[in-house]
Amino acid sequence: MAKLWGGRFSKATDALVDDFNSSIRFDSRMYAQDIAGSKAHAEMLGRQGIIKEADAELIVKTLSGIQSDIESGKIEFTIDAEDIHMNIETILISRIGDVGKRLHTGRSRNDQVALDTRMYLRDESDNIVSELEELKSVILSLAEEHLETAMPGYTHLQKAQPITLAHHLMAYYEMFKRDTERLADCRKRMNIMPLGSGALAATTYPLDREFVAEKLGFDGVTQNSLDGVSDRDFVLELAFCLSVVMTHLSRFSEEIILWSTGEFGFIVLDDAYSTGSSIMPQKKNPDVAELARGKTGRVYGDLMGLLTVMKSLPLAYNKDMQEDKEQIFDALDTVKMCIPVFAKMIATMTVKKDAMLRGAKGGFTNATDVADYLVNHGLPFRDAHSVVGHMVAYCIEHDTVIDALSMEEFLSFSELFEEDIYDAISVDACIGRRSIVGGPAAQTVKKLIEKYKK
Question: Residue limits of the Argininosuccinate lyase C-terminal domain (predicted)?
Answer without folding.
Answer: 364-431
